[in-house]
Write a structure and sequence with these properties.
Layout: H1 2-30, H2 37-58, H3 63-89, H4 96-99, H5 109-117, E1 129-130, E2 133-134, H6 135-155, H7 157-160
Helix pairs in contact: 1-2, 2-3, 3-6
Length: 161
């Protein structure tokens, strides 16, 4: 019975991760709010969790290890979100990560000049809020909830077998 409980929680985390990724792309492409580099980095744990939970359905024998990887993934998410929120609040200075741009497609000096003229999205500027909270602040709360839930699943894993 507890195995069903673990499966339910993993499905719930999968749904939360899908909603987080879909929401991020909706806010970016439909609502037109451009993400900063830290916002893009904060999407990685959700994509990774979707992959890990999907793999778990195929390889059940590694479930405890996948749960541990998910805990580490959301610890990374929490750390990046705290850092990002700290930049938004003025507690930390923007790092080089905030100013980096993707230069893979640049071929000519005209394209380089064009990119230099564009104003990059600053990590300290909050362009979108939900209930007065920035997406980085919401990600802090969500990451903490998921870390707590996954840790409880991991600790009780042997009892549930």
């Amino acid at each position: 019975m507890n195995n069903l409980k673990n499966e339910f929680y993993l499905r719930l985390i999968l749904i939360i991760s899908l909603v987080a990724i879909i929401s991020a792309y909706f806010i970016e492409y439909v609502l037109g709010h451009q993400p900063c580099n830290l916002c893009l980095i904060e999407r990685i744990p959700y994509g990774l969790s979707i992959i890990l939970i999907t793999l778990n359905y195929f390889f059940k024998k590694n479930e405890k290890f996948i749960i541990l990887l998910l805990i580490l993934t959301f610890c990374f998410s929490f750390a990046v979100s705290v850092y990002h929120s700290g930049i938004e609040q003025g507690l930390f200075e923007e790092s080089a990560v905030c100013g980096l741009k993707n230069t893979n497609g640049i071929i000519s000096k005209e394209e380089i000049l064009k990119q230099l003229q564009e104003k990059p999205v600053s990590c300290k500027d909050v362009t979108f809020r939900i209930f007065g909270l920035s997406l980085a602040s919401i990600n802090i709360l969500l990451s903490l909830i998921l870390i707590t839930l996954l840790t409880k699943i991991y600790i009780s894993y042997e009892k549930n077998k």
